[in-house]
Amino acid sequence: MRPVDLDRVTVREAVDRYVEMVRAKTATGALSPATSEVYARDALTFAVLAGAGRVLDDLSGADLDEVLLAFARKPDGRRRRVEPAERGHEAAPSQSMASQARFRRSVSAFFQYAAISGWIQLNPMQSVTVVARPRGGLPAQRRALTLEQAEGLLGAARRLSTAEPDEGKRVDQRMGLRDALIVLLLATVGPRVSELTRADVEHFYVNAGVRYWRIFGKGGRTRDVPLPNEVARVLDAHLADRQSAAPPGEKALLLSWRGRRLARGDAQAVIDRVLARVDPQWRRAVTPHGLRHTTATHLLAAATDMDAVRRVLGHSDLSTLGRYRDELPGELEAAMRAHPLLPRRGDGERSPDGSGERSGDGSSG
Known about the structure:
By secondary structure, the protein is mostly helical. The chain is 44% helix and 4% strand. It has 2 domains: 117 residues, Orthogonal Bundle (DNA polymerase, domain 1); 193 residues, Orthogonal Bundle (hpI Integrase, Chain A), CATH 1.10.443. Strands 1-2-3 form a 3-stranded antiparallel sheet, with no helix packed on it. Strand 1 and strand 2 form a beta hairpin. Helix 2 packs across helix 5 and helix 6 runs antiparallel to helix 7. The C terminus is likely disordered.
């Protein structure tokens, strides 16, 4: 028999209440604005696919299977639409494996809240049979750049930061210095793209001669990251240039040529413009998240303290670093050449007892 206190809400009513709760958590700092928007967007998508007028408790695992399959086949609006004449008989771009996994997590979180709120008797997610295929690793664009590729991109950004402004453009349309700063921050500090676009001028300060960026990250957490000297110089140049172009009262560090805060989707176009200046032999497509992987990978490869890298990236747990540390070509060979248990070239052999004696120096440990 159905419990007396069960609330027979429709899918739409439940989703509206859930979205209200999620956005309330943002106001209290429990969730970042970007995370809450993802949860809210996925919940609203779920309502459309499941049927807004249906009673939430009537949905079964089979119904959710249909929802997950419908989402998987749903065209991904972030990708360029291909006209039928271009693609022949190919289907429109569907959701990526990463998007499917994210949507599944969002729906699962929604039903967990529904169970707590008394909207369902049993969680139908426990009966779902549709499983997203594993991604099999990150796409190339999201993996870390090699040292040569990263140096090529950073070199192009540095040259762009010192180039003469295009006199044929208005002051508010000269974006070279801004573009250089975006690439330098993404590749050397490794922020999430949402953290970069949320940055305000007042979030950058100087302490004991060092320029810091106070980054507002996920879950309302903040971290203060010192900027490399070269990045700090480009930042100062950008701030000076920005004064003549920014609308009065605008706080955002990065502005579009229209004088509005830079959107998250604009960061990729900036990277692509700077990439066009890189020598073709070292040029490789990369996303903002790929540059975050690049920061983590090369800091760790340089034997930087793992906890320091964790703090730079804004992770709450050291174990998360494993997902950001990508394999670099030749790194195993380099590690074995510099094996700590074997003498380096030009050194004598260590003594069998480990005392550190080397042949031919006539000294004892």
